[in-house]
Protein 1
Amino acid sequence: MNKIWLVIKREYLTRVRNKTFLLSTILLPLVMVLFISGSVFFAAKSEGKKKIAVENKQSELANFLKSDSSKMEFTFNTGVDTSNFAEKGYDGFLYAVDSSGRHFLLKTVKAASNETMDRLKNKLNSAYISNKLLEKNISIEQIDSINSASASYYTVDNTDEKNKNVNAAINTGIGFTTGIIIYITMFVFGAMVMRGVMEEKTTRIAEVIISSVKPFQLMMGKIIGIGAVGLTQLLLWIILIFLISTAAFTFLPHDILQQVKDIQSNPGVMTSNPGQFSAAAKGLANLTNLNWPLIVGFFLFYFIGGYLFYSALFAAVGSVINEDPQEAQSLMFPIMMPIVFGFIIMSTNIDKPDSPVMVWASIIPFTSPIVMMGRLASSPPFWQLAVSMISLIVGFIFTTWAAAKIYRTGILLYGKKGSWKEMIKWIRRS
Amino acid sequence: MSLLEVQHLKKYFATQKAVDGISFSVNKGSIFGLLGPNGAGKTTLIRMITGIFYPDEGQIQFDGKKFDPINDVVHIGYMPEERGLYKKMKIGEQAVYLAQLKGLKKAEAMAKIKEWFIKFEMQSWWSKKVEDLSKGMSQKLQFVTTVLHEPKLIILDEPFSGLDPVNSNLIKDEIYKLAQRGSTIIFSTHRMEQVEEICDHIILVNKGQKILDGTVKDVKHQFKENLFSIGFEEIPAGLNGNPPYEMVGTKDHQYIVKIKEGFKPADVLNYFLHQGARIISFNEMLPSLSDIFIKLVEGTPLTRQFQAINA
């Protein structure tokens, strides 16, 4: 036991003391925050107010096509046409294609963004309907009051006793994000284990080491040591992201913070009177309402379970490779496939968390770490969670056992190309 | 008294009888030569002695008890033919790590490493990485890490390959010193002149079987061909009578002769003295280990063929 601890310590320290580890640990959250805030900033900046001139003969639009203060301004009776709207200082010129009152063209100086097009489409649609209503002798005032009202909905989790407001989009987003993180880390740290084993084999230190340590101890030491590196990195990221978001929180406007507090102190209020709160406040309240300890707990379980399940297989592959990257690729392929497969199932079916493919994929240990994280938000039945977790534990015990057999033979075998057929023979033989 | 005793050791692989019933014993404090052509089964044999492989059949006695790999490996130091060290690790840390794996405490390991580094003039290397070292330098480091924990049994596979004569001698002297202090050394090599110089006892392995066992002196006598070289002041002229030898060759002022069946070296000397030849030297010519090696191994295919094994 003492020796395995020495191996773990070496694997851990040589990696954690590496400059690239420190750099990637600190830089990644920073880059993420910069990227997100940067894209938000540019998105906000580029969409300045658009000045749009409307063709003279579209006077009936004037009743309902309303400018809004920040994004879009319509001007009627300008006298400009397609050839000179730009010179007169307009960003776009709106004119009818036919006389139906439904088909329009917007000619712009610069290509219009999706956001602008959606906004204009909604406004034109609403103006068209309003005009039709007007034809049915409904007064402009009545139409305006109809237009200003809007319907909205919220979902409430039936099983949640506290009647917390559950926002499906946020839950899915969290499931998706944690699934992706597990997907990426399984690749990154699995490949790290494989490279570590390859290094020991190609530098021929393996024979020196296993004359003092059993091959199984060396393999497990490496897997646990690198797993600890992964956990350290995740932990540092969680702390960093927490610090950064706390800092960002203090920059929020005061009234939003107050609204968040109100929602938190009285969770029912959001369902009974949703119009009272701004979208930002509701989003934040939803985030803080989530059961974070549960999410983090499951995340850590599936991260560790998935890592142990796959890293043993990566170690086995690393032990049969002879310095040939080509060989590594063909041997790694069967291991990488279920991981990629799990990711595809998770990302394409995240909106159908209880569909059969999701249920099965979240139970089978080859894909469960990724897929179950995506399902977690929809509170899967307890038995499915239990079966999934137990089969993951059984799964990694099995892969570790099989990998140890391959590893023991492979690590000392030089010059001979390993194949999966050969490896299965090694597992059976001893 | 023997430190290591190997009885009828067998290890069959899918296509090879790698080791096929080898027995030998190694005396405490001796330097033992394990010889054999490439692919004879030496490495497999060594791997069984170091506990890396389990033998299919046979027994290993280590220090008077049945060999127990888990506990006995700390008393063994093994330097494989293919050297290996972690390239990116600092040399000092690496030596400490390997020593700790052999059961030394950290402080103890540090003290011993410093001692060895001073002995080999490696003090300034501590924070260098292995990838910065030359082949000879990493060889010295490998040797230090092998013997650092003062093992009872040291197994060295081609310890001098890649070393210049100065460093070779440095290591050779340390090997002698280790043997004097009671360590037993198994020395595997193809360089026969080194074996003659260093080893007390040798075995020769070919095709998984032991084909020779004995002290260097005994082995040489076993294979001697009764050849003598006789040096003269002047080549004697007009020899007559019935010489008790056959002429094998002449070289400068020397005869190389083979004594005939039934005669003794004294008969040869007598014969020449009677002829009035002025002899200045008379030496027995023993075969070199290299000759014996080639003679025994010759005729077997250079590489072993793969064969089907029904074990």
Note: The beta strands of chain A are 50-54, 72-75, 92-96, 104-108, 155-156, 165-166.
Protein 2
Amino acid sequence: MSEIRNLINITDLSVKEIDHLIDIANDIVENPTEYQDICAHKKLATLFFEPSTRTRLSFTAAMMELGGNVLGFADANSSSAKKGESVSDTVIMAGCYADIIAMRHPKEGAPVIASTRTTVPIINAGDGGHFHPTQTLTDLLTISRKKGRLDNLVVGLCGDLKFGRTVHSLIEAMLRYENVKFVLISPEELKLPDYVKEEMDNCGAEWHEYERLEDAMPELDILYMTRVQKERFFNEEDYVRLKDSYILNLEKLEPAKKDLIIMHPLPRVNEISVEVDSDSRACYFYQALCGKHIRMALILYLLGMK
Amino acid sequence: MNIDGVSTGIVLDHIKAGKSMQIYELLGLDKLDCCVAIIQNATSSKYGRKDIIKIDGKIDLDFDILGYIDNNITVNIVDDNRLEKKVHLDLPETLTNVIKCKNPRCITSTEQEIPHKFRLVDRKNKVYRCAYCDAEYTEY
């Protein structure tokens, strides 16, 4: 890899590259000591113009476990952005100090600007409601490690499918694998946008919709839960009518396959009952762990070290 | 109405009726010191009504702007009273600083002095998306 690479959207990576990242992550899990000093004297800048818990911590943990150092800021108020500094200037400055940059920004497209202003690799750690490619990589690694494959799967997506960027990105990524069927479970108000459905049709992927989680459960290999937010509903009545349908509990899991995996990008509020945490099919905290391993793999890849 | 022909210059023909002023402004024709004539609502056998712009001098034209506004426009380049070249336009693959993204969540809404870039995603329906936030551009 000679040219400078960035990760702005998951489609910036070919299927071959994603498979390569998964291989690196698997090797990291199996041989952690071989990686513990690999990034010694390398620095990751985490530029978080809006707060994040999981993403920032997982990037920090990832670089630390590679033996590298981390610098940066956790929200715009503790950076010069508060004084009115542009994204461009902040990124040029950070590029003078760090070898690689992970940035989150509330404005869509901010990482594209960043990638044109510096010669160090830029990782998009979320730009508003637009892209969040490292979450998608996290999801793919989780599925790959738990199911042993990324093809021939029935993927259930439940909750807010209209505004949920993680859902759109996961569909986009999984459409590139053979025979993946999508089961969409959401209230009328939060259905998957038509343009994503058209994309599925164009790829020849099978999909269908349910309004009730119970109806979809028996056929699923993966259940990807997302949060249904009250403010998305037009009226209180609809929210009250539908919200319980999207809370996963042990009773709703009864007809599910024994080897189902339950995923959630987190944070969870109440859409997965705490009683599900002890079920062997619950994978959402394992998913957070995969987030660290795939980010380690990504840092190594973009630095040209793997 | 009689307007003199151009001896050496450019004639933009078959402009969709009503679009000539927009083209005049976007091409910066107001900044030229040569003679520029705008003819509106001329009779057209092809389109019924059309606008025409005559520029009495050779200038560098931004064909991307013209192609985006109306790719039916014909550009006639005249030299010494002879038609030197006739250019037919097409929708450009990319647009830079021709239109602005209207998505309030786009980085272009806050970051100063960055080019507004768009890419063509659907030629048939003339759909452009912002190169930064991917929002579809709409006229209104």
Note: Chain A has two domains: 10-131+291-302, 134-288.
Protein 3
Amino acid sequence: MTSKTEAVLDALFQPPPDWPTIGDLNLAALFDAELNEVGALAGTYDLFALLPEAFVGQSREEREGALRKIEAENPLGFATMLAHASNVYYSAPGVLQKLEQAHGYPARPPLYVGYELSAFDEALLEPQKKVAETLFREV
Amino acid sequence: MLSRRSFVASSLAASGLICASELPAKPAKTTVLVVGAGAGGAAISWRLASLGFSVTCLEQGGYEDYAKSPAADPKWELLRQREYNPDPNVRNRAEDYPIDVAKSDIHPLMYSAVGGSTIMWSCHAPRFHPSDFAIRTLDGVGDDWPIRYQDLEPFYDLNESISGVAGLNGDPAYPDSKKPRLPPLPIGLGAEKIATALNDLGWHWWPADVQVNSVAHGAGRGICNHCGPCELGCPLRAKGSTDVTYWPEALKSGAQLITNARVTKLISRGDQVLGAEFLDLNGQLREQRADVVVLAGNGIGTPRLLLLSATSEHPNGLANSSDMVGRNLMFHPVGISTGVFEDALDGYRGVTACSIASKQFCDTRAENDFTRGYMLQMLRSLGPVMTALGGYGVPQEWGRGHRARFDTTFNHTASIAVVCEDLPEPDNRVTLDAALEDSSGLPAPQIHYRVSSNSKKMLKQGRERCEEILTRAGAGEVRHIPLLQGAGFHLMGTARMGEDPKRFVTNEWGRTHDIKNLFIADGSLFTSAAAVNPTATIQALALRVGTHIAKSYV
């Protein structure tokens, strides 16, 4: 870990060994850049200041423990920080590529390719068509 | 044959589309002035222009630039939370006005552009049911509409033939008729599971009526490619937003559409409206005179403008001798239940917000502890960012458990929205805010709204029904959002139609009781809210009002 932000993101998402690391993805820089642009995220610096000095060099387990302590004491601020971290992490191309491998979810935006879907199977409606009564009241 | 792009470009350049700042200070008088280019404003503008009337429409937003579509951006899920958020208070664009929601349980959503909120609309377009128009007669609550389903039926047909609605005839929730329908859209794996569960339970469902091209329909429009986030606007022009349905045809018929025009007030004298004052992008005040004025600024914008148009002759606001302008604001209170399934459901494929709908619980039942009812609307699933953020109420873990939890929920959920019929209550209302202003210094609307005990009971029962359905469908875990605060999609009732001028703002033709040449053509007109999405009814009403104006002013 080279920075507090990188160490936090790693503790939050704990990428498995076959996934790119936070450092590989350069996510700490992206995370920090937005902190300066989005006013609602400004409190994140205050949260990070509460982390122990040795945080960057700690094990994942120790870092998770430190973060859980902060979450308990500052639930709203922590939730804001976690949401920002999730936005950054799950927008990263390297993470999306792993999701494509794991879930088949294509690592691209929805447009313009779109997706294939099977046509509606009207046979599903057979039980509904057998219902004799209507569902509406005449006026 | 023109390509889609050249067709749209030629339609817009046909002369009728003008930015407000390009106009003279006092443009030539028009016969009909329409305020707002969204669902209702577009429909009525087309109707009157196609019948040969001189029509001018003032729209505070601009034309949507689909070349910048967020759905084609790798950060589309982030953009949806910010610049393309449906909440104007979050989006905060120059053409938006802020809304004071401190006293509201539900936050209104809307969009300012040609096409209005249909740009960000999830395109579910069911009709109201016959009983929805007579809730006082049938159930002793609210008020009857001054019209019946049959009065609106030909206008539903007309709207659907223009807009293009994918669906299937034969739904037992409606009178038997040959509605204009394109083939139904694919419903996806999650909805198939839910449909099977509904069949097992003996409860109604039917493919949703969706204003989306499942096949080719309409000049210059494309076919849905099931990309998913319709709410971000549809560059394929497969979704029936009115910038691609009514507006190209209205402009071809000679309508004039003035964009970036913020109407500040209506000009009136006695029981006549003379036109409107509006600001262009540069803040220059202009004036448009007209024989007839139609307001279509949505259920919040329209009452706001009427209240802003107070004069010494109309001290309580224009068309407001009844004190009913802004009152009886109705949303559809929404809860969401989500099932987590073992199977991958590919719920990111296809129209996100609707696939099938159940009307089983829409109507009043003797055994219930509430009156009227709710619709169940099936939802697909979310992208990775929104999944990580705990969207649709499925919480995520961070730390050690994160990867496993995410991987068992992402692409493994299907949801059901409980959409409740709100009843009209005078204290739920829109007023002018004493402190908050828009960027032009005009008072912002303030929303006073509390979810009723009737709606809370509906939400509770709906939640229980969803638990039953999702469990029957095979979900191993079911989560609930009891009330979605950011679900003010549907804005209704703030200038209701009815016969009594002391209790209602307009008559059955959308004409205000007080001002004889002032009409309304949006969700403000709704006498009651039903338990289904309002856009089809807004558009049918607008076509009916337009037809009446045409007959009256020939």
Note: The mean pLDDT of chain A is 94.
